[in-house]
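A quick aside before the break. I want you to see a complete sequence-to-structure record at least once, exactly as it would be stored in a machine-readable document. Don't worry about memorizing anything.
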Amino acid sequence: MDGDLISVLPHQSSVAPLDDVLAKLPAGILIVDTDGICIYANTVAAALFAPLQPPGLKLPSLLSLTGFSNGAALAEVTEPGQAGNAVRIGAADGRILEGRGRRLEDGTAVITLFDVTSYIREAELAARDPLTGLSNRAALGEYLNVQLNASKRTEIPVAVICLDLDRFKGVNDTLGHAVGDALLIKVAERLRNAVRQSDMVARLGGDEFAIIQTGVAQPQGAEIMASRLVDLIGRSYVVSGHMINIGVSVGVAISPGDGRDNTTLLQHADLALYRAKSEGRGTFKFFSPEMDEDMQKRRLLELDLRRALALKQFEVVYQPQMHLETDTLTGFEALLRWRTPERGNVSPADFIPLAEELDLITPIGDWVLRTACKEAVGWSRPVTVAVNVSAAQFSGNKLVTSVKSALAASGLDPARLELEITEGALLNNTTTVLEQLNALRALGIRISMDDFGTGYSSLSYLQKFPFDKIKIDQSFVRDNHSTSGSAIVRAVSAMGASLGMRTIAEGVETQEQLQRVRADGCCSVQGYLTGRPLAAAAAAALLDGPAVPATSRLDDPS
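That is the input. The structure line, written in tokens, reads:
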């Protein structure tokens, strides 16, 4: 650190004339004779080794007696040919000194010592995640660069393993950020215990982590690690008295095949992670080139989706809902469609999940709600219009305001509006969602549970809120090869009747399915057999015609 300081010292064995000069220097100065005995220590050096007095002690003994490690390395810097080299020695009390030595012509050696404790600690803190104590993104990048450079010489691959916790947002939303932070600390501890000393674990932010794995055969090493992580992180946690179950999705990229530089490897591991999340979570995926191609397509789809609302590319279509007892049309479900000049019709299965991921579903959902109310108010008969509501639309307690605004702007009777929600909306922040549902019910709006039977806790939600309608998922309606589907439809219909809730079977496409759900006690049906989704004008025209009983259509095999 201070070779210039050493060079200004006069080459003489007598040190007394230097007292005044050396005493004023900010560095600790030791002068050692040819036998390795300290013959001088300035004021700073004396303070560093207090309460011992350095003069008269051999350098190794001085360092040992005062609790400093790596003393032999410091002694070596005074050997001929080692001028200017620096070593760091650590004290038992946590202090860190950096020393440089130079041997003079008369055989004595001068050692300068600087206390670099605060500098080292600040550097360490800058490289650490303050919550978990793991390395941060910057430190991970530096370490990865070092390992990739070493890999070029050794030809030993480096694996980048990216992790994202599953269901962590639900913990924050339901139990609070304090519990969420405590959970992250426990996850970090499990990750530390899962890796070797030569591996680095880092928290990249939020609930995202990464591991740099080195020195093992690949891809076997990464596969073993990823499989272990899925199992380890997926085990239950007890945090602040709560039993918490989460999971983890893992993506892996390995040099040099998946990338030779820091940025590429991290990007490719992240792409593999995205694939793991999109294919059900709780699993791991290795990067493959087609993932990059898929991501480029997704980015283009994302750009188009962000512009779609402004460019008025969305359309609402209406699928008839038929009441089985009277065989008449009683309402429509409003369904969103997206048509672009370049892509044509984009499947809702492709763009709805993306809209939810990009937080675009709320403005899109608000637009569907306003449009459906505006068009329904002009229908010649006062049938209902059902609008799907995403779980994201409940966040921020803005849904009630949006519904009130749509009703006020259109003039639609609230009793004609039906909101369909899935169990996913109730899964997180159940209390907040139920408060909004009760407020909507107070306006006179009907509430339906959509896709009933596909979740895990639907029965408990039926106890918590008096839904007007239960919509039986089409997977049970189309189960023609066993009695299980019919049994579920029959059980749900009976349960709905006992709770005062109507049932509607969706996805009815054949006469056989219609006859079965009718026999099983369903109140209403919806599907291609009873009516495909219609443009707004066609839906209005259907209502303008004579109210012919639906029996003639339902029983017509054509």
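Two observations worth writing down. The chain has 23 helices and 21 strands. The longest helix spans residues 289-308. We'll return to this after the break.
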